[in-house]
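Aquaporin (Deinococcus arcticus), 252 aa
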Amino acid sequence: MRSCRPCRPARRRRRVTWTAPPCRWPEVAPSLGRAAVAEGLGTFALVFFGPGAAVVQAQTGALGHLGVALVFGLSVMAVLATLGPVSGAHINPAATLALALCGQLPRAWVAPYVAAQLTGAVLAALALLALLGREGGLGVTVPAGSAAQSFGLELLLTFFLLLAALRAGRPWVVGGVVALAAAMGGPISGASMNPARSFGPALVSGIWTAHWLYWVAPALGAGLAAGVHLWLGAPARPQAPAGGSADRGASA
């Protein structure tokens, strides 16, 4: 009589759960001190190269409008790639606000980040004054038309910039959006999208024309971008099951 083989127990299938990360911005190192220094350095670089290019264009005409826009975009791209792993490379109080609203930055870190960004912007404007002089207004942002026109433009440009940053976060994406926004909105509002970028040159040059809108409009744009990002839901990626690893390509 043939004996029956024991039945094999049914294998339990491992389930792969899919979670939606709140945003794709680079992760922040646990040290607030290092992060704040990185924010100051990054904002210094942005204001030195971006408004610096605007000053060089005003003095020599060598870069052209699109050249200045490209310098802004490349500056942001380089800072994100270099300092992103240290602080997230917000280099923008509006970006810091958006990330705090998304729960990606401790609320207690907002004030130190913004203080570091403003300090870096002022120091960069002082460096531009020492090296290039006052011609070109240190790249200060002032409305070319009405304040209402520039307010609306700054709000929308900031919204699209931060929405792209929250949902993609890669240096080339964020830098590309900055260059596009500067090319389109620069002649009208200055395409600041960044209170620190406007504050440094304004403080050193003493030009405060409609300066309030370069704070209020980006703040509203940041809140709108954070709300839309959370409502849309972030791109899903697989979570590694117990004892295994998920496909890395899905979370890149």
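Residues 59 and 135 are 7 Å apart (CA to CA). Residues 13-21, 236-252 have pLDDT under 50 and may be disordered. ok done for today
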